Amino acid sequence: MTLANPNRKLVEDYFVAWSRGDERKxxxxxxxxxxxxxxxxxxxxxRKGALEMSRLxxxxxxxxxxxxxxxxxxxxxxxxxFVGTGTHKGEFLGIPPTGRKxxxxxxxxxxxxxxxxxxxxxxxxxxxxxxxxxxxxxxAAAQH
Length: 144
Prior knowledge:
The protein is α+β, with helices and mostly antiparallel strands. It has helices at 6-20, 23-29, 47-60, 126-132, 139-142, and strands at residues 30-37, 65-74, 77-87, 101-113, 116-124.
């Protein structure tokens, strides 16, 4: 029997809390020196920004779900792929609700220390998401 890696479990708990919009749980999992890499304009790269980003997504996509995995663990770093799904029911980055269902893939590399998340480097298909919401014309339409 193999024991679960505590860093993998920590990162899974972090993303589950993020997908549920559970700010209290997120705060308990983030180190005081937490860094949120790659925030959108107007979002700070710290705990406050990460919570704000979670709020922003949950207001825009109230049925947000994240499918997680696979996970790759190496020391204090955990990498994973995820796919976020949701229906655009609230304003998102100035885009009024469209009612469109979205599916957006991403990859994260998360650094853990002493049972807390210290860094989250997440990249997701923002261009694809904005295109699905109609904020960016699809390439085929743009060529004409």
